[in-house]
Every structure is written in structure tokens, then in C-alpha cells.
Fold this sequence. Notes:
- The chain has ten helices and 20 strands.
- The protein is of the alpha/beta class and 350 residues long.
- It has two domains: 5-186 and 297-349, Rossmann fold; 195-293, 3-Layer(aba) Sandwich (Cytidine Deaminase, domain 2), CATH 3.40.140.
- Strand 19 (299-305), helix 10 (316-327) and strand 20 form a beta-alpha-beta unit.
- Helix 5 (171-185) packs parallel to helix 10 (316-327) and helix 7 (225-231) packs parallel to helix 8 (248-257).
- The longest helix is centred in the middle third of the chain and has 15 residues, at 171-185.
- It starts with a helix and ends in an 18-residue tail after the last strand.
Amino acid sequence: MGRSLAELIEGYSCVAIIGMEKNAGKTTVLNHLLSTRPPVVQAITSIGYDGEDTDQVTATDKPSIYVGCGTMVATASSLLGQCDFTRELLRFTGFHTPMGEVVITRARSDGFAQIAGPSTTVQMSSLINMLHELGAVQVLVDGAAARKSTAAIASSEACILATGAAFSPDPDDIIEQTRHYTELLTLPEFEPDTVFALRNADANSCILLDQGGNICGRVSALSDECADLIAGRNGQPTMALFNGAVTRPVLQKLLDKCRQLDWLQIVAEDGTRYLINSRQKLDLTSRGARLAVRRQVNLIAVTVNPTAPSGLKLDSAELCDRLSEKIGMPVFDVYAAQNHAFSRKATQYA
Length: 350
């Protein structure tokens, strides 16, 4: 029998939970991990706002976040009145959100929480350090849906990806798109130092480096000229270093211009920056392009919510088992009775 999800996160000082889509089950996963009450001090925070009764985007009911006595909660000051646990104020952080300054409290009783944290990588990393300094052994970060999860990922040692029926009513589509996203998150790291090239670079720059590592071009990654500049290097070993999003229009224009791309390596900050579909990824790699990241995500598990807000309910065991076979890592439905990994090869995770 494979290890449970709670057992998989043991030893990690910070774990982020991100989602393929809204209502993929991130909050349910967070509650499941909090309910295990491990013998260490846990802390929770969020990218943006979470814990509300109704999802602000989809207008559907959301599960509440329930914390146990002793849990540290980092949240916006205006939400404290909506948290019904007895609390001790530990620290003001100086990080301001639309709902007020993020403050750190310790629960002195069990109760429901609403959490809102910073949305930038720098502030999230600093907040996690503060929580550890105050005695938290493990921090759980309720990350964002889809591509907005960079700050959570960059600040964490491990990551859990939530997917399910909210993403698509078609099990085949869920499996294929989750496979695609896990591949992006776990793209190989490009090891040589590229910090020098990004020094003073704009947030959405694309910087071209020649075989010797010299800068041979610079353009906005969001401009129409980006693909033209890259294609102009056709046949010459080139690295396209993106300091922001790698978008579908840029790569499609590049594919339209170049039949072979074995001279090109594309490097993004992490897998969340690749805003491409599975077909484009296949087209790029089949033509010889190499995709890499400056920071690989340590994805340790995938969770499945088989129920969509519409009421659709998929076969959980079949979906989890097929998905595990496809991506080669543990897959969980935390509503399942045993809460162990679904896989015909479960013993490989033991």
C-alpha cells in the first residue's frame, strides 16, 4: 500500500497546493492535511483570498478552512473578525493587501478561518520565513488556480496539484491536460547561471543568448517582434531566455516561420510561465526545440476532485488510477476512505 498524502508531505518545511482550475479541490486538500494533526506546528496562508463561503469567481459554495488549536494563521487584518477561533496575535508583517495588512496569529482553539496573503514571490518568501522564525515547522500555502501560482511554487519545497471534474467533464481531457501541465511543471532545469542576462531586464523580456552566452537580442516577450527576432537566428545555436510568460501566439508564429528548431533552447522561470497547449509543446519538441526552466517544481502528488460545481460526478477510482498510470506519480482523492495513492503500481511509492 502506498503512503498517504499526509505521509508524503512529512519532512517538507513548506508545501504549496495549486489547482488546474477553480473548484479543483485545493481547499479540501488543505483541510485534509490540517485534519491529520501531525506532531509538528503547522501554519497556513494563501496566495490572495481564500476561505470565503462562496467562490468570488464562480459563485459556488466553497468548503470552509478549519484549523486546530496551535495552528498559525497568516491572513489579512480585515478578515480576523470573520475567523471564529480564539487567537493570539504574534506579528504584523508589513505586507499590505486590498483587505489590509497581513498579520500572523496563533489559534488558541479550533475554528474556521478565512485567509488572504501576499501575491508576490518576494513577500510570500519573507512571510514563510517569518512563520518558521515564530516556530512553524511546516507551512501550507493555499495557492492559486492555473497560471497564477508562481509565487506559491517559488516559495515552497514541494507542491501538490489539484485537478478534477471542474476542469472538464471529459475524463480523457482531464487526464491529457493534467499530464501536459505536470510535464511543464517538471521540465528539466537549465543549470548554467543566467542571472547576468536578466539583470535589469523588464518583467516580460525575452533575451537571446548565442552559443558563447553573449546577449545577441532583446525584445518584449509580448510584442509581435518577439517571434521574428527568434526566427532570425534560424540555424544558429540560440537560447531564448524568457523573464515572463512564454505565450501561444509567440510560439505559434515561430512554428509558422521555422520548420526545424534543433538550434533553439527556450528557458522560462518555471513551468507555470509556459502558456502553451499540449499540441504546441509536441510541435516544438518534434522539431528539435528544447524546453527548460530555471527552477523545476518539486511536484510530489496530484489530487482529484471527481465532482464539478454543476453536480457532475465522475468515477473517482477509475479516474485516479488512469491518471496515476499516465503521469507516473501518486494520485489521491482525499474524500476516499483510505486516502492512499491510487495506482496499480502503488508499491513503488512505499
